[in-house]
Amino acid sequence: MAAPFLAVVPAWNEAGTVGETVREIHAGLPEATILVVDDGSTDATAEEARSAGATVVSLPFNLGVGGAMRTGFRYAVQHGFDTVVQIDADGQHDPAEVPGLLAELTGADLVIGARFAGRGDYEAEFLRRLAMRVLARAVSTLTRTRLTDTTSGFRASGPRAVALFAEDYPAEYLGDTVESTIIAAKAGLTITQRPVRMRTRRGGTPSQSPLRLVVFLARAMLVVFLAGFRARPKGPR
Amino acid sequence: MTTAQVAALIAGAIALAVILDLVRRRQLREKYAALWLTLGAGIATLAVFPGLLDRVAERLGVADPPNLLFFLGILVLLVVVVQLSFELSRLEDRIRTLAERLAILQADVDGAEVSPPDERR
After folding, report:
1. What is the full per-residue pLDDT of chain B (121 aa) written as tens digits?
2. φ, ψ for residue A107 (rounded to 5)?
3. How far apart are CA A17 and CA A14, in angstroms?
4. Are A67 and B107 in contact (CB < 8 Å)?
5. For chain B, how long is the longest CA-to-CA vector?
6. CB of B107 within 8 Å of any CB in chain A?
7. A74 touches chain B (CB under 8 A)
8. With an 8 Å Cβ cutoff, are B103 and A59 in contact?
């Protein structure tokens, strides 16, 4: 049987999909302990996750994916897990891809499951792809690692990354993806990516007008810029 | 004393009184109170000695004394706003950390097997 790890599922008002996601992870990855971090949901997310067999940690109010994930990393440290895989509650991330991500952890501290990296048929409009490519180029330069999908939340963290992220995982815009990658690189961690197939999410449609994409890119570049010279946080977390 | 001077003096006195009362009722911490008390005292001083502003402006080479007043006023407000943003960021960070720790503790407590009190005897 494969080594145990903690599957962290950040969930904010995902009652419709979280149960199915948990059951799917359990079926495909019996070695995983599933932790659903209920990020201040106002619906039945926590109950659905619990009845599907997950351990549930409920935040008292919404902190965003970064807050939910740091809770997950902290939980991992406190409960003796040295490997964490983030799996979104909306069904976008296929548990069948997880062993591939975990396999890459032998040579890296952080593995990012990347869309548009040659595999899968993930559909995205041209402008969106362009924006994400520009962002990926910037992050790649800063982290000195070739990354093509820096906004992917489908990622696996090894022991060094788990210890780092339990202390320092930003709750701000793009903090859970772009900034955390830069934080890992600055801490001297090895980052790699692995092409994954991603499914279209079960609930919700990403609407992206050109103006919103411009705003997205501008904010993302600001995140990259600020992350580049941010110091590590001090004091107990 | 001109009417304007009296008005400025009253405004300064009211500001001082409000700040002192907030501190007395423990609604305002000293670190913030110090700033506002200094400001209130400054307004009152200028109200009583309006010539002071002109002399300082002349010393600093400011042609129009009221401009010095506006400049200093904006500067003080800027510093205060930055200070509040800083405090707010720190508070948000602390609240976030508390929320995360609380959530994990709650889950651990709920998950722990607690034996009923009468079995412990």
Report:
1. 788 888 888 888 888 888 889 888 988 888 888 888 888 788 888 888 888 889 999 999 989 988 998 999 899 899 989 999 999 999 999 999 999 999 999 999 988 765 555 554 4
2. -115, 5
3. 6
4. no
5. 86
6. yes
7. yes
8. yes
pLDDT tens digits, one per residue of A184-227: 999 999 999 999 998 876 554 455 678 888 888 899 999 988 88
- How many whole angstroms from its chain centre is CA B25? 15
Nearest CA in chain A to B106: A57
Q: Which of A70, A71, A169 is the best residue to mutate to test the B interface, defined by the most B CB atoms within 10 Å of its own CB?
A: A71
| A61 contacts B100? CB cut-off 8 A | no
When CB atoms are compared, the residue of B93, B104, B111 closest to A71 is B104
Inter-chain touch B100–A74, beta carbons under 8 Å: yes
Q: What are the distances in angstroms from CA B105 to CA A55, A86, A237, B34?
A: 13, 21, 14, 39
Residue-wise pLDDT for A38-92, tens only, equals 999 999 999 999 999 999 999 999 999 999 999 999 999 999 999 999 999 999 9
B1 min Cα distance to partner chain A (Å): 54
What's chain B's length in residues? 121
Helix H or strand E encompassing A222? helix A210-228
**Residue carrying structure tokens 């200028």:** B46
